[in-house]
What we know:
Blueprint: E1 9-13, H1 23-37, E2 41-46, E3 57-59, E4 62-64, E5 71-73, H2 77-87, E6 92-97, H3 106-113, E7 117-121, H4 131-148, E8 152-155, H5 158-166, E9 174-176, H6 193-196, E10 201-206, H7 215-224, E11 231-236, H8 242-248, E12 254-258, H9 263-272, E13 273-278, H10 287-294, E14 298-302, H11 307-311, E15 316-318, H12 323-336, H13 338-355, H14 358-372
Parallel strand pairs: 1-2, 1-6, 2-3, 6-7, 7-8, 8-9, 10-11, 10-13, 11-12, 13-14, 14-15
Antiparallel strand pairs: 4-5
Helix pairs in contact: 1-14, 7-12, 10-13, 12-13
Amino acid sequence: MPHSSRDIRIAWLGHKSTTIGDGLRTYSREVTKGLEKRGVEILFVHHEKGLADGHSSHSLNGHAGFQRRFTIAGAGSRRRLERVLRDHGVDAVHLSAPFSTLDFVLPELCHRLGIPLIVTFHVPFSGDLSRWAVLAAIVYRLYAPMLAACDRVIAFGRTQRRLLIDLGVPEHLIVVSPNGVDIEKYTPGPSMALQFFQAERIFSYIGRVDPEKEVETLLRAFLEARPPASLRLLVVGDGVELNRLKRRYRDDRVVFTGTILDELTRIAILRASDAFFLPSRVEALSLAMLEAMACGVATAATRVGNHAEALEGAGVLLRSTHLLEDLRAAMRSFIDTPALCRGLGSHARLRAAQLFSLDAHLDVLVGLYESLLGREEPGREIV
């Protein structure tokens, strides 16, 4: 049964939006909603002016930076944040990073106010030598001193934990707790998506359509695998590459839906999908991938971030160094052998239910707050 805790007030620093549906925003929305159901009071601090109510939602000055994933904090935002933390008497600050340029001043600010600081570190990474992997490694090095000054750091897997330790983040500060999905909502089930898209089978990609996501390589592999006319590849999402790819890949078998914010529609697409593909050059632990697994979809993703831990034995791991070749082979196998999709989908669902539930992640967070505040229950431990 989910653990509940009352009389804890958390200042949650994260991304908030009603028009963007990426993993960072979904994580903040779903986790804060889940914490509130358990009696934790949330003060959501963000950089979206129109979404502030002055009570549970507070806005700071700033403007969007790199791919809308990082914000340049505006003048006076640090003073405004300090006032919010003081005036509302928060027990702890939870940062969903990357958030903004304020990330790097938070340890000093929180320690001066006597408030514990917890960070969930979403920054993607990879072990290859692509430019995206190199850029991610630079970001990890920039963040390492800041993370080392926090009270706890949440990593999504053992691979990420080892990387942080190697960069100097003290081992005792790192808590491994994978990202999670609502496995009661994201389940296999009936769907009208096949009829809607006039398809006999559907393959899907859900995520940003940005260069590091390698959506173009996915499209090339799909078409080179010679799919039948009744098969659709749905590309669900928006990004800097979307318009160019829509112009270049005009094929009835490829459907660009743009961003779909309605959760039930995304679930319907996943339930109708035989296979889900994530060819990214860098990731931490993709929430879209976990949602697909929970819906019982055969999943193929690059061996980057924490994906090997998530998919080993329950999906197909793609080599980022041979991405087109591996994608094409996976596509061909899934096209020729629908039974393979069904078998891998069953394994993926089981893995998601066992290891990647939102309730399990919330259990860790609530226990962590109580531990830092000296309110843990007798016999209750943080994993």
